[in-house]
Amino acid sequence: AEGQIDMMVFIRTSLLHHRRHHHYYSLLLLPSILFILFYIIIIHSNRAEAFSTLHKNMPTSTAPITITTTTTTTSSTKLSAALSTSTRVQETLDPCVVLMKELLTKYQHKWNRNNNDNGDENDNNRKMYSLAQGIVHWSPPPSVSQAMISAMQQQQQEDLHQYAPDEGIPELIQALKEKFKRENNLPCPRTRTRTSSTNIDVIVTSGANQAYMNCICTLLSEGEECIVFRPYYFNHVMAVQMTRGQDALRIGPMDENGYPCLEWLKQQLEMDEEGKKKKIKVVTIVNPGNPTGVSMPTKRLRDIVDLCKSHSIWVVMDCTYEHFDHNASNSFIIDGSDNGHGENDHPTLGFHCFDDENVMNIFSFSKGYAMAGYRVGAIAINTTSEEGQDAYQQMIKVQDTIPICASRISQIAALGALSAGRQWVLDKVKTLDGSRELILDALSSLECCMGGTGAMYVMGKLPDGMDDLVFAEMLIEKYGVAVIPGNFCGLPGWIRVCYSNLPMEDCKVAAGRLKNGILDLCFSSFKESVQ
C-alpha cells in the first residue's frame, strides 16, 4: 500500500514538473506513466487474489471456531499443518464435574417453573441439587478470615503481593510439620527412638490435585508406569494421561471390600521384576477412598507399603479425606487430648500415615476445613535418605514451573485454619451421619452399594444394561439431582453420590428425589424399554 501511494505521488509530481518543462520531458513522461500504471494493476491483482483466498478460510459467522488438523493451502503459501492441540490432552478424560455442571445449566430452565413431577410429595421447591462434586456444606472456621484480616492490617501487608518461597511460607511449613507429627504420626513414634531420626519436609501446593501432579512429574519418567486401582479418582488418571500418556497407566482391581487387590499387585510387581525392563515406578492409593467411600484398615495399607518398598516402588498416598475416617480404621488417640476437646468433651483422634522412605503423603485443606476455593494442599516427604532429599529437590523444580508457589494470602488462611484445631473439623464431620444414612437409603433398591465408612461418598450399581451416563443426565433433567457417572471412575454401570455437599434439610429433599429417580428410571422405565 505504501508503495502504491509513493507511485501516485511520483506521477502527480511528474505531471506538475511536465507543465513547467514540457519541452524537455515530453518524449519520456508518457512511457514512464504507462509503466507505473501497469505495475499498480499487477500488484492490485495479486493482492485481490490473496484476500479472496483468505476470505474463503475465515468464519462467516460469530459462532466459535472449530480447529481441525487438516492443512490449508493458499496460492502463495503452503502450511505444513493447521493449528492443533496436544494429543495427550485430547486423549485425557473429560472433567466430569464440569460436565455435570453444564448439564445442570442445560436443564435449569425446566426447574425455573413449578414442577411437581420431580418425585417430591407436595414439593414446591424448584431448586436443583448437586450430589456430584466432593465438597462440604459448611464454611471455614472463623480463624481463617481473622488470619487474613490480621495479615492485611499489620506489617505482613507489605509482603502479601510478593511471591512466597516455592516450598511455602516458613510459618505454615512449621505449623504443618507440627500438625503432621501430632495428628498423623509423621514421623511415627516408633522411629523417634531410632539413633538416626526421620526427617519430614513439606511442600505447600495449590490444592491436592497439584500436589499429585507434582508427584507424577517428579517420579514418573517416559516409558514408566503408574498403578491406580479401579474405581479410581478421575483427576489422578487425568494427571498421568496428560503428562505421560495412556500407556503409562496400569489399572488394577479392587476386592469385594473396596480395597486394592494385594495379590494382583504382588503378581504385577514380580512380573515387572522378571521383565527385561522394569516399568512400574509409582503406586497410587487414596485413603479414605475417592470414589469408593471406603476407609481401609491400617494393616492393608502397611502390607501395600512394605510390598512396594521391597520392589523399590514409590507409593503416593492421598490423605485428602483424613478427617473422614468414619469407622476409625486408621485412628489413634492424640497424646494430651484425653482431657477433652470440642463440644463433645472427648479425646481427639488422629489419622495414622506412613513415614516410610518410599511414601509421599498428600494432604488438603479443601475438605475438612472447607477451603476448596483457597486452593491449598501439601506434600510430606521423608528426606532422611539421599533418595528422599533428591526427590524433594527435584520436586521444587516442578513446583517452580507450575505455580511457583501457592498463593501467599491462601497460605495465611491455611495457617488460620490450623489454629482452629483438628477437633473443630471432626465435630463438623460428625454432623454428616444423618445425610449419609439418607443417601444409603436412597440407594437401597440397587443390587449393590459400596462405601459409607470413609470420605464423603457412596457408590451404587445400576441394573445390568443401564447406561450410567444416560441415567445421570435423565436424573438431572427429570429430578433435578446430579451425581457422578461411574464411567469417569473406570466403573461403568455405577454412580458416585456425595452426601456432604448439602445441609441436612436440602440433602433430605435431594435424597428423596434420588430414591424416586432410581425406582422410576432404573426399574419402571428400564423394564418397559426392555419389554
What does this molecule look like?
It is a single chain. The protein is an alpha/beta fold. Helices cover 44% and strands 12% of the residues. The strands form 4 sheets. A 7-stranded mixed β-sheet has the order 2-10-9-6-5-3-4, with helices on both faces. Strands 11-12-15-14 form a 4-stranded antiparallel β-sheet. Strand 11 (449-451) and strand 12 (457-461) form a beta hairpin. Helix 1 (2-20) packs antiparallel against helix 2 (22-56) and helix 6 packs parallel to helix 13.
Low-confidence stretches: 7-13, 15-29, 39-77, 339-343
User: What proportion strand?
Assistant: 5-15%
Our count of helices gives 17
Report the helical percentage: 40-55%
Give the structural class: alpha/beta
Q: Tell me the radius of gyration.
A: 32 Å
What is the CA–CA distance across the termini?
73 Å
Mind summarizing the main beta sheet?
7 strands, mixed
**Shape designation:** globular
Q: Determine the mean pLDDT.
A: 84
Number of strands: 15
Strand order of the largest sheet: 2-10-9-6-5-3-4
Distinctive features:
alpha/beta; seven-stranded mixed beta sheet; globular
Write the layout of secondary structure elements.
Elements: H1 2-20, H2 22-56, H3 87-90, H4 96-106, E1 129-130, H5 142-153, H6 170-183, H7 189-192, E2 200-205, H8 208-219, E3 225-230, H9 234-244, E4 249-253, H10 262-274, E5 280-286, H11 298-310, E6 314-318, E7 331-333, E8 349-351, E9 359-364, E10 377-382, H12 386-401, H13 408-420, H14 422-430, H15 433-442, E11 449-451, E12 457-461, H16 468-479, E13 481-482, E14 484-485, E15 494-498, H17 504-530
Parallel strand pairs: 1-13, 3-4, 3-5, 5-6, 6-9
Antiparallel strand pairs: 2-10, 7-8, 9-10, 11-12, 12-15, 14-15
